[in-house]
């Protein structure tokens, strides 16, 4: 039986792929679980419209991410933190603190999008990556200063 996948299914394909499977597998597993539909002409058109909508949505998200990346480029955040001997911080600067500092500057960015290569435990300027979109990543500087 030929079916068209409406969800990604590991080992078989991605959305929109037409595959040939045994009748029982299609009727008893793929179709009831909403993974596939019979490969009729109308179902193929339906899946193509879903794919085109998804593509447009991803393109809009990418454009928004590129615009935000342009605004963030060259940004230097100042974060004050308690410091012990030899310029070492008590604890470390976390992605939550960076997200809060970005929010104060007017940029609402989820802390999960902030990528720290290693924990920031020293005073000074550090480079931090922010992944705004799977294809858009921007670097900002974080200036950690001692708290008075």
From TrEMBL:
Provide a Gene Ontology MF annotation, just one: rRNA binding
Using the record for this protein, list the coiled-coil segments as residue ranges, or answer none.
44-75
Q: Where is the Ribosomal protein L9 domain?
A: 13-40
Q: Which GO terms describe its cellular component?
A: ribonucleoprotein complex; ribosome
| Keyword Coiled coil applies | yes
Q: In its UniProt entry, what is this protein called?
A: Large ribosomal subunit protein bL9
Recorded superkingdom:
Bacteria
As recorded in Swiss-Prot or TrEMBL, the protein's gene is named rplI
Q: Which InterPro entries match?
A: Ribosomal_bL9, Ribosomal_bL9/RNase_H1_N, Ribosomal_bL9_bac/chp, Ribosomal_bL9_C, Ribosomal_bL9_C_sf, Ribosomal_bL9_N, Ribosomal_bL9_N_sf
Q: Which Gene3D superfamilies match?
A: Ribosomal protein L9, C-terminal domain, Ribosomal protein L9, N-terminal domain
Q: Which Pfam families match?
A: Ribosomal_L9_C, Ribosomal_L9_N
| Summary of the function given for this chain in its UniProt record | Binds to the 23S rRNA.
- Keyword annotations of the record: Coiled coil, Ribonucleoprotein, Ribosomal protein, RNA-binding, rRNA-binding
**PROSITE patterns of this UniProt entry?**
RIBOSOMAL_L9 (PS00651)
